[in-house]
Amino acid sequence: MGINVPAFVAAEIEIMVREIDDLRQEAIAAIGAAADLKSLEELRVHFAGRRSRLREILSSIGKLSAEERPIIGSAAGKAQRVIDNALEQRQAALEALSESSDSFDITLPGRRPHIGRKHPLTAMTDELVDVLRSMGFSVADGPEVDDEFHNFDALNTPADHPARDEHDTFYLDDGNLLRTHTSTVQIRVMQQQPPPIRVISQGRCYRKETVDATHHMVFHQIEGLYVDEGVSLAELKGTLTTLGRRIMGDRTEIRFRPHFFPFTEPSVEFDFSCTICAGEGQIQGSRCRVCKGTGWIEIGGAGMVDPNVFRAVDYDAEKYTGFAFGFGIERVAMIRYGIDDIRLFLDSDLRFTRQFGG
Ligand code: FA5
């Protein structure tokens, strides 16, 4: 694109116009060939910057005669617009190029996709539920915010009963409370359906507890209830022995220790033989760390359902008997996975959970 120079202009002006034309062409060629944004910026400074030759020409226009002024002004202004336009277009093209090459750089190492896994507590719960379901228990659910009736009264624990002290919890303004055990679900199920009942329930429980390595104010329990005519303590023992062997290993033994729970009579606490030292209490002469040398690991509580509980849900206490058991899932998971502090289950540090498969 040449510039027509009128016949009357002086030779210097003609030279100037040619210079502007050359500058424009040189700029367009260099800008089109700019390989990256950095070199484009250098070209911007050189051809369109404050100290560029084109600016110099434009600022000297005032010194020219009235005839010359529009010739140079128009040539230089046009050249500047063309250069600015070329700079803008090349910048857009280079930016698009760098974005697309960013996302398609096949030489970069691949990003490993984050594969989630089950929290050890979830894995343990799923396993316990699977075993108990395979033994004929169905799964029931209940609310974590419950009332005193389901958490205490219906479980034969009236307001003045000393057993309430061990289940101190968090009370809401409306008089409801955060359940202290999953036994609340026993009551809800029995209120809804007649015997026979064979049900388990698992979930979060709360107690106003001082937190240490084995106690938390938020923990999980799993509970079992079997009600029918002629259910016996022997069946309770058989059920828990099977559960113990499926979870802890084929050689696991169970023992019952007499205990007290308001809602069962008789009541027991049950222990599984220690799988680490095979119930010996010691490994190669030194005391077993897991069972602390006793050969037994405390698991939970159980017993035959107290007739008063049946009366609270309008069951015929003369006709039916039943057993119930309940234990902490953290406790079993800690033994199973060798976790020595219950607080770790609530830790958001993924280095903890990533240690467990599943
Ligand atoms: C009960 O909660 C009874 N409901 C269990 C039961 C059910 C007995 C049916 C008879 C028939 P206990 O308070 O002992 O019992 O708690 C049972 C288990 O829950 C304990 O063995 C322990 O493993 C777990 N547990 C209780 N409190 C906490 C706590 N603060 N932190 C972690 N685990 C706990």
Structure description:
The chain has 358 residues and is α+β, with helices and mostly antiparallel strands. It folds into 2 domains: 11-100, no CATH class; 120-353, Bira Bifunctional Protein, Domain 2 (BirA Bifunctional Protein, domain 2, 2-Layer Sandwich), CATH 3.30.930.10. The protein is built from 11 helices and 11 strands. The strands form 3 sheets. Strands 1-4-5-11-10-7-6 form a 7-stranded mixed beta sheet, sandwiched between helices. A hairpin with a 2-residue loop joins strand 8 and strand 9. It is elongated, with a radius of gyration of 42 Å. The model has no long low-confidence stretch (mean pLDDT 91). The chain binds adenosine-5'-[phenylalaninyl-phosphate]. Residues 181, 183, 207, 209, 215-216, 219, 221, 223, 261, 264, 300-303, 324-328, 330-331, 342 line the site of adenosine-5'-[phenylalaninyl-phosphate] (FA5).
List the helices and strands and how they pair.
Layout: H1 11-33, H2 37-48, H3 53-59, H4 68-103, H5 120-134, E1 138-140, E2 145-146, H6 148-151, E3 177-178, H7 183-192, E4 197-206, E5 218-228, H8 233-248, E6 254-261, E7 264-273, E8 282-283, E9 286-287, E10 296-305, H9 307-312, E11 321-328, H10 329-337, H11 350-353
Parallel strand pairs: 1-4
Antiparallel strand pairs: 2-3, 4-5, 5-11, 6-7, 7-10, 8-9, 10-11
The structure holds adenosine-5'-[phenylalaninyl-phosphate] (FA5).
